Structures are given as structure tokens and as C-alpha cells.
Amino acid sequence: MLLLSIETSCDETAAAVVRDGREILSSVISSQVAIHAMYGGVVPEIASRKHLESITPVISHALQEAGVGMEEIEGVAVTRGPGLSGALLVGFSAAKAIAAARKIPFVGVHHIEGHLFATFLEKPVDFPFLALVVSGGHTHLYHVEDYGHYTTLGRTIDDAAGEAYDKCAKIMGMPYPGGHLIDRMAQSGKSDAIRLPRPLLRDGTLNFSFSGLKTAVLQHTMKNPVSIPGQDADDLCASFQEAVCHVLAAKTEAAIRQTGAARLVVAGGVACNSGLRLRMAALCEQLGVELSIPHPSLCGDNAAMLAVPGDHYLSHGLVSPLSMDVTATWDMDSIKESLK
Predict the structure, then answer these.
(1) Domain 2-117+299-338 is classified in which CATH homologous superfamily?
(2) Each residue of 30-87: pLDDT tens digit?
(3) Cβ contact 301:42 at 8 Å
(4) Angle at CA 60, nearest 5°, toward 9 and 4?
(5) Model-level pTM greater than 0.90?
(6) Topology of the domain comprising 127-293
(7) By CB atoms within 10 Å of each CB, which of 102, 103, 171, 319 scores lowest?
């Protein structure tokens, strides 16, 4: 199936053309980072307006880059949720309009579902597998039995890891988004220079919490202001990153031992982080577990990732009705119910 995929859950307007849920013919992303940087974070109203301006040019660009016409598209996959409601509505409305006008099927896909299948665009992973999805809004551990069949093993109870990265970067005086800057500076710092907490490390659950770690960074900088560039800032970045990766790796190891998983997928925007990639590689080598992490270009929000579950659902006759609406919150565990 030649699929058009559309993603507008937050501040990236993205479209892709993918064949058979595996071959990327095009992937176009229009980022709003520069616009939101002056506010220190994403402003929902502005994000929605920029999506309205960008959606048609981005879709046209994706078709042109793929060398196909709209008349050749056989189905549409689009992010239904979770995300910013106004932003989601732009992409979802465009997808439904295309499906209705062309009389082709469309399917609403869970944003995180797209992330955990992004690695399939490079190499499929056998079911079942364990998935750690780490992004600006999500830090979740899932047991993945098949398409649409997910069990949440653990989740963040407050800030997600990516959110903590950006907030701590802001505390240190870095521009938004600062997660990638912390990663870069951490490579020049000493990870044991500053003692920082490991929230919920031994609480007996697979849940995460990064709010306390963020507070610890704030308290440290109030007592010991850092200068950028400077060794003190590099050390704080390295210590912060070590704390985050320590918790993520420890919880993932516990989940692997609990489930007996032989395969691990790490996905989401924070999967670009060099420290996390190295830590997960070492963990999986130690436990004899097969590790799959997408190329960094597929870790952030993109539309191509939606084509993997989207193609599967549409190929099996699981089509979303045109009456379907977006949802700002959506539990992954309930996806199989919505597909019946």
C-alpha cells in the first residue's frame, strides 16, 4: 500500500509517503522550534496557527519528493493523539479531507505507537518485545505483544525525561530546547562531580519520576551558579545525564527481568541522546538482549513512523470512521478496543 502519513501532535508539521509500511519514499518535517524558542516552550495557540500555514505545503512537498501524485495514494495514516488538541485537529482534518475526497481509507494512529515502531522502517523486530519510549511528554515502558496489543508496565508520575532535560537546560541558562545541549556538554563533564538524586530508583515499581531531579538541579544552581561555557556547567550536565540514564537503565533492566523479554526497543526524541544509547547498548550486551534503536532522524517526531502501524491496520481492514475525533489523552492499553 502506498500510504500518506501526517503528524501534527505538537510543534512539527510532518508528512511522509511510505510504501508497504517499510520503504520511505519521502519524509518532510517543518519545525517550529525557532518560533517557540523565544517563549521557552511550545505555545499551543501559536503551534496550531503554524500548522494551518504549513500543512498544505508540507504535504505537497512530501508528494513531490516521493515522485507520486495524490491520485496514487491508497490510504492515509495520521496522528489522532495524544498531543495538543488544536495541533492534532489540523493534521487530522487534512487527513480526513483527503480520504473523503479520494474515497480512500484512513486510520488514526497513537503518537507513541508510531515512535515504538519507527525502528521497523530500518529493521523489523520480532514480537513480543519490551519498549522504552522516552520523549518530551512521555517516559513509558510497554510490553508489546503485537500491533495494537500493548501493556503499560511503567510510566512517569510527573515530568517526562525529555521535559526534565529541557527544563534543567533552561535553569542553567541555555536556550530552548536545550536537551541536545546538555548531551553535548555532558561529554566534557565528570558524571560523578555532583551528587544528584535517582527518584523512585528502588520503589519496587517500574514507574519514573524526574520532578525531584529537576528541583535538585535548581537548588544546586541557586547555591552554585554555573557559567556557559565552563567546566562547572559541563560537570552539572554530565551528572544530570548520568542520573537520568541510571534510572532509565535500572527500570528497564527490572522490566526485562520481570518479563523475560529477549528484545528491547528504545524510541522517542530522547533516544537520540548519546549517553542513553551507550547505556542501553551496555545493558543489553550484559543481559544478552537484542537492542533496536532507530536512527536519530527517526527518533524525533516525524510522519514516516506512523506508516508502520498505519499500513498494518489498513491492510487488515481496520479503518477509522470519518466521524472519529482527536484525543489529547489516549491510553495505549486501550488501542485494541478502538480497533474492533
Answers:
(1) ATPase, nucleotide binding domain (3.30.420.40)
(2) 999 889 988 888 899 999 999 999 999 999 999 999 999 999 999 999 999 999 999 9
(3) no
(4) 60
(5) yes
(6) Nucleotidyltransferase; domain 5 (3.30.420)
(7) 103
